[in-house]
Fold this sequence. Notes:
323 residues; alpha/beta; Spore Coat Polysaccharide Biosynthesis Protein SpsA, Chain A; 2 domains; 10 helices; 15% strand
Amino acid sequence: MTVRLYVVIPCCNExxxxxxxxxxxxxxxxxxxxxxxxxxxxxxxxxxDGSKDHTWDVIKRLHGDDALFSGINLxxxxxxxxxxxxxxxTVKDRCDVTISMDADLQDDIDAIDAMxxxxxxxxDIVYGVRSSRKMDSAFKRSTAxxxxxxxxxxxxxxVYNHADYRLMSRRALDGLEQFRxxxxxxxxxxxxxxxxxxxxxxxxxERIAGESKYPLSKMIALAIEGVTSLSVKPIxxxxxxxxxxxxxxxxxxxxFIVQFFLGMTVPGWASxxxxxxxxxxxxxxxxxxxxxxxxxIYLETKARPxxxxxxxLDVSPDAVDSR
Length: 323
């Protein structure tokens, strides 16, 4: 039996890229339907994440021209991770499997064939993994490697060189729905769902049009989100750091006492000032980490909705217009 596939694509200010993306994906989906790999009522679902340009107008035009395209319009910008989750949760009861990817088509769409084959072999989650990072700058390669190693040291389960290009079965999506946290880092949450999983390697290409929606500042914010959402080890690090500094301070105090009785004390402000600055920096760093966790607790206790859907465009038999 062929599976019904929904390709979920978050979009934020992507009016330049969408026509190109839609054309390439239409060709891929048509080929998969013709070969019998997926059913004829499979869809490409664009999720408009509060775009300020004409992205939603483009999505509505694509939907009007071809029922292959569906659309979800969020009430406001909620960020990439929330927009992706909104798409997955909206379509999960209309399909057998989903594949999530970015609108810039840097992810190789030909890897979809291998993902579907892995799913047919019994895997509920198939991660798209970059075979290399040769196209990245040396800075990006080194920081990415360091970050993945850092996550592993913190006990966070993640897939190396994987972003958000992945296949998920309906039961895997049902499992993901049980995770109710507001602070989202799907790259770390999906491995926690369990179920049989595997990887498919692909070569990541250049962005087809428009500008990157993930500048350095957003990448850093996402990295911090990943660490603080999935591990409490930074808090434990503060405790160990405090113990270590206390031991060093006690040793230094003993040295000063011995020097005092031996008449070896040398007046000076350098050591005092340096000590104050070091301890002050450690305290501010510790307060910052604690504040990050307190802020997340604050957001979680409010239990605000992670996304709100304003409109759904889909002619699928199971679709419901949410207007």
